[in-house]
């Protein structure tokens, strides 16, 4: 962690951004604005290095951990309660890439019965994956 940031016992701030959208009607531009709004309110944003420019050190390896639970809702509902919306994953990755990081990994470990390839296909995130067998 950069020396300019206080340790976690000193900095217990929380920030929330509300998006008024359905899962299928998520607007990428609104998601990007929400990510930026939260990062600015927490003091993480940098005009030159994006939403995480003040918290991602130069050369860092960054892991972005969305919430992926299952590839399909077994109760008949949609994906909303099961995974982080792909536009949120994309917005966070896009902002992180603006910093001087050296590597970025998007990863999660869904529940055992999840068909991970099906989850990636249904979200459109399969185009990001590589090396999956």
Structural features:
133 residues, mainly alpha, two-stranded parallel sheet, 3 helices, globular
How does the SSE layout of this entry go?
Blueprint: H1 28-41, E1 61-64, H2 86-97, E2 103-106, H3 116-123
Helix pairs in contact: 1-2
What would your notes on this structure say?
By secondary structure, the protein is mainly α. The protein is 26% helix and 6% strand. The chain is built from three helices and two strands; from the N terminus they run H-E-H-E-H. It has a two-stranded parallel sheet with strand order 1-2. Helix 1 packs across helix 2. The protein is globular and about 40 Å long. The N and C termini lie far apart (34 Å). The model has no long low-confidence stretch (mean pLDDT 83).
The helix tally amounts to: 3
Tell me the distance between the termini: 34 Å
Poorly predicted runs of 5 or more residues:
none
Beta content comes to 5-15%
Summarize the structure in short.
The chain contains three helices and two strands. Helix content is 26%, strand content 6%.
């Amino acid at each position: 962690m950069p020396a300019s940031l206080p340790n976690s016992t000193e900095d217990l701030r929380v920030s929330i951004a509300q998006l008024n959208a359905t899962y299928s009607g998520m607007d990428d531009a609104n998601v990007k604005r929400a990510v930026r709004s939260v990062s600015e309110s927490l003091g993480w944003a940098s005009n030159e290095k994006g939403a995480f420019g003040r918290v991602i050190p130069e050369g860092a390896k960054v892991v972005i951990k969305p919430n992926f639970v299952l590839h399909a809702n077994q109760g008949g509902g949609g994906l909303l309660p099961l995974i982080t919306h792909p536009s949120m994953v994309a917005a966070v990755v896009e902002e992180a890439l603006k910093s001087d990081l050296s590597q970025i990994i998007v990863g999660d470990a869904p529940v055992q019965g999840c068909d991970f390839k099906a989850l990636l296909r249904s979200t459109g995130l399969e185009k990001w994956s590589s090396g999956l067998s």
